[in-house]
Q: What sequence folds into this?
């Protein structure tokens, strides 16, 4: 892959004839490809329990002018949808 020249990023490049592609075997089945976009598309998202309570550990909080306060984290369990009222613990702040 050459990000500088764009080779094997979105489609197979003729400038790298030695590269025959990649393949991986996993319990969900095989995946293979010849470029970076194929590899990114082949990533399987981890299974997350959506039937449990929302758990979203915060990594950071940004204050962006014109936008407001933006909490950043990863949903570990549950589902977060636009308009959901959430409580931030341990401060017990609701937004």
A:
């Amino acid at each position: 892959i050459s990000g500088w020249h764009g080779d094997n990023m979105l489609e197979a490049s003729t400038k790298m004839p030695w590269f025959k592609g990649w393949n991986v075997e996993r319990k969900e089945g095989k995946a293979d490809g010849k470029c970076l976009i194929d590899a990114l598309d082949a990533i399987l998202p981890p299974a997350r329990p959506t039937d449990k309570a929302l758990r979203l550990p915060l990594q950071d909080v940004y204050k962006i002018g014109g936008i407001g306060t933006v909490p950043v984290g990863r949903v570990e369990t549950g589902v977060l949808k636009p308009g959901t009222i959430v409580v931030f613990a341990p401060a017990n702040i609701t937004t």
